[in-house]
Amino acid sequence: MFRWLSTGGLCVVNYFNVEIHAVRSGAVEDASRGGVDDAVDRMMAQWRIARPDLDPSPFGIVGRVHRLERVFEREMGRFYAEYGLDGPEFDVLAALRRSGREGTLTAGELLRASTVTSGAITNRIDKLARKGLVERTPDPADRRSVIVVLTGPGRALIDDMLDGYFEAERRVIEALPHPDALAAALRTLLVALGDASPPGPPGGL
């Protein structure tokens, strides 16, 4: 599991029997990486030389998350392109398909499920509507609102993509020795930063 010990200037993290030793001078030895540094290691080493008075260790996590985001987008982008979509378009189709409401959501619900502006959501819906994958209908409960509905071709496309989608994700994390433990740690961080899921049935967003 996870254990943190501190003795004098030495800190030891035990993460599933992989020990990470860090001394306050900034030297880091990670028994799991086999002596191979990544770009973040190099940048942290440069900061320790340029500003030895600072502790860049949080960048070891934050910097890698940023870089992994770009890697994931690149790798998953290749998969989406095989189906004539991009990532944002896939996100809309996936949100509609998993909604548990016959593939329907209001534009506002789609917006709340994303981290983009209302204009960006509108643009995504427009592109998918032109492709015949979604359609808009008036919301009978609120005439100011619009319901976005998966069309038959839209549902067929997203269903056809899902096996390959999860397999593509599995490939990009296959080097992780304990993915479930990392998922739990990332969940803890997201919740602590205010990104908790609202209460409700699992069929919601």
Automatic annotation (TrEMBL):
PROSITE patterns: HTH_MARR_1, HTH_MARR_2. Keywords: DNA-binding, Transcription, Transcription regulation. Gene3D superfamilies: Winged helix-like DNA-binding domain superfamily/Winged helix DNA-binding domain. Pfam families: MarR_2. Coiled coil: none annotated. GO terms for biological process: response to stress. Residues 58-195 form the HTH marR-type domain. InterPro entries: HTH_MarR-typ, MarR/SlyA-like, Tscrpt_reg_MarR-type_CS, WH-like_DNA-bd_sf, WH_DNA-bd_sf. GO terms for molecular function: DNA binding; DNA-binding transcription factor activity. It comes from the Bacteria. The keyword Transcription applies. This is DNA-binding MarR family transcriptional regulator. It comes from Actinocorallia herbida. The lineage of its organism: Bacteria, Bacillati, Actinomycetota, Actinomycetes, Streptosporangiales.
